[in-house]
Amino acid sequence: MVPLLAALSVFQLVSGSVLETYEETLVRNPALLVLVPVQIGTAGNLASITCSRLTTQLYLGTYELSPRNSGLRANAGAVVALAGTVFGLVGVAAW
Question: Domain residues of the chain, as ranges?
């Protein structure tokens, strides 16, 4: 559990550093500042969807970690399609 928490802490530090580099842009454009929590929440929701699908496959015994696993590819494709659609629409709405 400790290595996972350490890795997540590093990811959080990196994401905070990335946001800090765009601080001036976000202050000049408040509409973008409002969208930051939306983007973070949407990414968390997509991660939850992925985890629930993988957990369901594990529970049913259909999970295989191989490139030939069509269910795994379909789930990854669905999450990428959802992310592209949602983030694209949010970007257009912010524009």
Answer: 2-94
